Amino acid sequence: MSAGRIGCMTTPAQGSRIPDAALYACDNSKFGSDGKGRYWPGTEAWFAWLSRTIKRYGPDRCLWALAPDQPFDAAGTLTDSLPWLTRIRELGVPAAYAAQDGCDAPGLLPWEAFDVLFLAGSTEWKLGPVAERLAREAKSRGKSVHMGRVNSRLRLGIAEWFGCDTADGTYLAYGPDKNLPKLLSWLDDLDGRPSLFGRTHPPGQAGEKPRTPPRAGTPRSSTLIGRPPSLNSHDPAMARRAGPPAHRRR
Q: For 165-177, how does the pLDDT look when each residue is reduced to its tens digit (9 = 90+)?
């Protein structure tokens, strides 16, 4: 944790303590460990929890907080998230918006209302060309990008290739003593490879085409690092892209 390589994600259902000096992010339990939102406490209880968490640990250590969403439902997510994005920002932290399958349809991404694009949705969509294009558009707009459910070296590499600033997963919850060295080795591997990003069109430039992940063994940008893990072994760990945290609104 002192090396600042792994971070922690907290949710209303966990009640875990954030380690001293660790950066953290606040999920909403709408998807949850069961994938069905069983632990979602309701909007008012969620926001009360979020307010307490940020007050306790400070807004400066909070990378973002995810607004309520409807997993796999782009239109429903827009309806549920919009009333809360401004209120999250008023807590002094970046507001994250969950991108779902189909959210690229006109009017379903309120770009000016959020600070972090959270790649959620189905696994196929999240790893596909639409999510990649949206991630690059978010970066061109000065926003951060997060990918959820990243539990393998391959998926971590894809998140990095898309330009994600952070990623999370439950990989460490299943055998942390065994899996932590593996996770750190993945991060070392990404950090040790030369960048290809300077050899492509800037995001949003005319003629740019979404890039697909390179084949195994191809050099790629290595900018994902981690942050200190939660003390609760069941909390998802989170990796963070090198560089300054997402901008915060006061």
A: 989 977 677 777 7
